């Protein structure tokens, strides 16, 4: 396994991280525990979850499965998106909501601290000063070690960093957003900003929900067991230009002797400011396929070919983003 520093922090994270959105949903508890242990045994130390994944099941399953192994991982969770639709304070990044959700997460994860606490999306209704002071208090209390943003636009993150520097608050060390060959829109503003400010990038949807594995050959086709079959909402991502890119990546992977998924992840690992690439799994074999990305060298020729087929996605719409209405 290869390790990198998370932004300018002194904490090292595995270049490949484990996303657990499927735990308790597309992977049952026993399968999820096997995937988690296999990831740790393979050298993956970055485990990513959120308070709302599979309801709250993802955190609960992780807490149970990590017994005796908590000190082997960098454990990160999030809050900010809708946790309770029946409460006016059931979302956002107010002090009220964040303190409540952190305590709930700690109980489910069966730990007294998280290594990275991420704000799941920018909250336009709460002053950043309130959010950042709350996060600073959490770090000082020893319940959080580092803080990160997620789904923040470049101006939102830059404003947050400016306030932290001015007030002496804990600073965001990372930003978690959609980034892949099918979504290069972050390269317009987010990537340069993160490079300038020493913020680590944590991409999600590195395989565009499976499109970059090459398994989708046309918009109307959904392979058995694929996300498009199990989640009808995913159909909206199967636009012609995305499916075409998936096939182009598959063709290039075949030419170079690599799996399309591994090649796509390896490209992302080599992008500026990327600290760890989050991949999900519903089987241990799927995780093994993604681990092969660590052995791929993206040389100049291969990088140019990948650029040729994906450069148009720099100026397309984002593949995915999650915001508070």
TrEMBL record:
Residues 16-309 form the NADP-dependent oxidoreductase domain. It comes from the Bacteria. Coiled coil: none annotated. Keywords: Oxidoreductase. SUPFAM superfamilies: NAD(P)-linked oxidoreductase. This is Aldo/keto reductase. It comes from Paenibacillus urinalis.
């Amino acid at each position: 396994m290869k390790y990198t520093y998370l932004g300018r922090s002194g904490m090292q994270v595995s270049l490949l991280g484990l996303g657990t959105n499927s735990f308790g949903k597309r992977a049952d508890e026993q399968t999820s525990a096997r995937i988690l242990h296999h990831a740790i045994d393979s050298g993956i130390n970055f485990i990513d979850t959120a308070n709302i994944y599979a309801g709250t099941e993802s955190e609960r399953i992780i807490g149970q499965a990590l017994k005796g192994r908590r000190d082997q991982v960098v454990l990160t969770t999030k809050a900010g998106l809708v946790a309770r639709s029946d409460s006016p304070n059931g979302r956002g990044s107010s002090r009220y909501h964040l303190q409540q959700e952190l305590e709930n997460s700690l109980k489910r994860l069966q730990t007294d601290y998280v290594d990275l606490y991420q704000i799941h999306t920018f909250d336009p209704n709460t002053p950043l000063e309130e959010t950042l002071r709350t996060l600073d208090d959490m770090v000082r209390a020893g319940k959080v070690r580092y803080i990160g943003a997620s789904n923040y636009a470049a101006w939102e993150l830059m404003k947050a960093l400016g306030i932290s520097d001015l007030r002496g608050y804990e600073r965001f060390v990372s930003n978690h957003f959609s980034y892949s060959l099918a979504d290069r829109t972050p390269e317009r503003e987010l990537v340069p900003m993160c490079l300038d400010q020493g913020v680590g990038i944590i991409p999600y949807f590195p395989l565009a929900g499976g499109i970059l594995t090459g398994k989708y050959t046309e918009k109307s086709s959904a392979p058995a067991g694929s996300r498009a079959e199990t989640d009808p909402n995913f159909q909206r991502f199967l636009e012609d230009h995305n499916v075409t890119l998936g096939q182009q990546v598959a063709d290039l992977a075949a030419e170079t002797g690599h799996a399309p998924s591994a090649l796509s992840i390896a490209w992302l690992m080599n992008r500026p400011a990327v600290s760890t690439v989050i991949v999900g799994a519903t089987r241990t074999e799927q995780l093994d396929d993604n681990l092969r990305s660590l052995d791929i060298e993206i040389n100049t020729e291969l990088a140019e070919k990948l650029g040729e087929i994906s450069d148009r996605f720099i100026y397309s719409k984002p593949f995915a983003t999650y915001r508070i209405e």
